[in-house]
Amino acid sequence: MSSNFAQPVRDFLTWLRVEGGLSSATLDAYGRDLQDLIEDLADQGVTCPNDVGPRDLAAHVQSLHRQRGLQPSSIARHLSTIRMFFKWMESERRIERTPAGPLVPPTQWKRLPGVLSPRKMRQLIDAASPESGGRLWRRDLALVEIMYGCGLRASEVCALSVDDWKRELRVLLVTGKGDKQRLVPLGDPAIEAIEGYVTDLRDHLTRFGDGRDELKLLLSNTGRPLERVAVWQIIRRLACRAELGEIHPHMLRHSFATHMLAGGADLRVVQELLGHANIATTQIYTHVDRSQLRDVVNSCLPRSA
């Protein structure tokens, strides 16, 4: 990274961490975006923040699409990082004026999230069984019941500690993006799965660990906390066992939200359960299938006698 950019980037990321409370993963993403920008600018012969112009940034954005083949959603994230960085530079009076003003985000089509039907969700849960799941089946069952029953992200379920399970209150204390915490109620299936795992398996798994991570709720077969890649592997293995095809962990979160809304839950309630800061993020789950549309039309449209 150019020495003229290095200190401003470090200061910007520190500002985001302190003032914005962003997670380390988000900060890493911002850092990578700025690294790509600065390397591209250097190739164009631009090595000083004050020398960056709108055309330099436009050329960088074009390269993201033409040379790297990034999708509009990824390019939009890059643009957001660039806009924030130069706006911050302007507010700190490190540059006279941001060159990112004329940049226009690429058009994005909103894609509906992949959702499992209630029947397929049942098949996935049933795949975590003593007949086919080996000695870790109780852990796998607890994982699936928590992710689907509470709508958690893979990173959130990995971060759960034993103390986050409030047994008497029947809730989980979940730490989401930006270290924001929320309480999510547990249904009977999830509670039974957690109790079965803690009672019959978890203490056994802690014997293989080194003692440093024993407070995490879900453990691997070596006693270490589950990592996101392990969650992906478990879900894919269960999906293969249930003959459901390609399924990723976030589909359980999508299914939770969709099934909650289809069952009559208020959109604001689902927003709170998912930990969304903006309700617009939750509104994507208000999609309905054609059969529901047909039922609504048949029941609500006035007909002449």
Structure explained in plain terms:
By secondary structure, this protein is mostly helical. It is built from 13 helices and three strands. Strands 1-2-3 form a three-stranded antiparallel β-sheet. Helix 1 packs antiparallel against helix 2 (24-43). It is globular, with a radius of gyration of 24 Å.
The assigned structural class equals mainly alpha
Number of helices: 13
Per DSSP E runs of 2 or more residues, the count of β-strands stands at 3
CATH class of the largest domain: Mainly Alpha
Question: How are the strands of the largest sheet arranged?
Answer: 1-2-3
The gross shape turns out to be globular
- What is the ordering of alpha helices and beta strands? HHHHHHHEEEHHHHHH
Mean pLDDT: 85
CATH topology of the largest domain: hpI Integrase, Chain A
In short:
The protein is mainly α. It has helices at 3-20, 24-43, 54-66, 72-91, 118-126, 137-150, 154-159, 188-206, 228-241, 250-262, 267-274, 279-282, 290-300, and strands at residues 165-166, 171-175, 181-185.
Layout of SSEs?
Blueprint: H1 3-20, H2 24-43, H3 54-66, H4 72-91, H5 118-126, H6 137-150, H7 154-159, E1 165-166, E2 171-175, E3 181-185, H8 188-206, H9 228-241, H10 250-262, H11 267-274, H12 279-282, H13 290-300
Antiparallel strand pairs: 1-2, 2-3
Give keywords.
305 residues, mainly alpha, DNA polymerase, domain 1, hpI Integrase, Chain A, 2 domains, three-stranded antiparallel sheet, 13 helices
